[in-house]
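Colleagues,

For the teaching module next term, I've prepared a clean inverse folding example: a structure given as tokens, and then the sequence designed for it. I'd like students to try predicting residues themselves before seeing the answer, so please don't circulate the second half yet.
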């Protein structure tokens, strides 16, 4: 009797962490959340995670030739280990996939639709013939390195692709953004090619100028300023040109700038919401009191008083000729 109860308890604790094997040419649709040690898909098998089901895999998912995995809207697939995909996998994510690493063989396709996201906690490696498609509002984040054999491979990025380590692979296409190591590397390294960003104090107003050599997907610029370089406040929003291949000029006069040393930040925001911050600049906007510091006679010799001077050098660096009254 006790042995039977013990066996029953063991089954309760382990029966929900068995392996799942999906046979060749068959389709498996989830009906509830579950936990497995391993999942294996046979040739041309389909695994459809639907509704709000959460599937946990404590080890590894392996797919054979021509297999499909579909993570539906609101569904989640969590793989502690790797997704090991043989040739011609079709991985479609509309919900969430969290995986330790991805290793793909030739001619595989990953499609992330709007609202879908994949988090790869390690490395992502794929052979030639790989198609990576990230649609608008889709996200692929790889904390490690990405290595996609570029032979026959494509990357169509209309959403967001975030790489924590190095990237080796085909040239990026699409209207989305790729960030590597915290820096935007696509499109065209930066959405906007900034030529300069300057600030000048004139009559205690701050004149800000910046210019771009080209713009891609540029929605607008945001200017902020600060007294201490730590806490910044909004100054203005300036619309961008969207798309441009010619040099463009922007200017703003900060008439409300306080009379101190000020720090200015310039942000660029593209249509997908990606933000680029340019280096901070500073300007001395303190009220300048002009006073004489040296006197010179007509032949350039320094003299001791204004009475003997022909020229006066002032604290702001200007040199003025003395008007003599007769």
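(Answer key — instructors only)
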């Amino acid at each position: 009797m006790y042995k039977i109860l013990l066996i029953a308890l063991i089954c309760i604790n382990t029966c929900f962490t068995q392996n799942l094997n999906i046979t060749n040419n068959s389709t498996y649709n989830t009906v509830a959340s579950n936990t497995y040690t391993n999942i294996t898909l046979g040739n041309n098998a389909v695994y459809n995670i639907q509704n709000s089901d959460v599937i946990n895999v404590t080890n590894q998912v392996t797919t054979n030739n021509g297999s499909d995995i579909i993570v539906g809207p609101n569904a989640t697939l969590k793989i502690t280990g790797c997704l090991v995909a043989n040739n011609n996998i079709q991985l479609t994510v509309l919900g969430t996939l969290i995986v330790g690493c991805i290793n793909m063989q030739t001619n595989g396709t990953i499609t992330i639709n709007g609202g879908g996201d994949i988090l790869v906690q390690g490395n992502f490696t794929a052979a030639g013939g790989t198609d990576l498609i990230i649609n608008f509002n889709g996200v692929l984040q790889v904390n490690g390195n990405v290595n996609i054999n570029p032979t026959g491979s494509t990357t169509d990025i209309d959403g967001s692709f975030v790489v924590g380590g190095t990237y080796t692979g085909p040239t990026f296409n699409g209207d989305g953004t790729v960030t590597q190591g915290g820096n935007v590397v696509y499109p065209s390294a930066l959405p906007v090619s900034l030529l300069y960003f300057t600030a000048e104090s004139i009559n205690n107003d701050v004149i800000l100028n910046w210019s771009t050599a080209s713009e891609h997907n540029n929605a607008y610029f945001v200017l902020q300023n600060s007294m201490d370089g730590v806490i910044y406040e909004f100054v203005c929003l300036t619309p961008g040109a969207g798309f441009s291949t010619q040099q463009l000029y922007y200017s703003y006069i900060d008439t409300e700038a306080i009379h101190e040393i000020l720090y200015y930040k310039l942000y660029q925001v593209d249509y997908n919401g990606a933000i680029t911050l340019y280096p901070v600049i500073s300007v001395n906007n303190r009220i300048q009191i002009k006073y004489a510091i040296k006197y010179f006679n007509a032949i350039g010799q320094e003299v001791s008083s204004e009475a003997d001077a022909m020229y006066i050098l002032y604290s702001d660096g200007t040199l003025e000729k003395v008007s003599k009254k007769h």
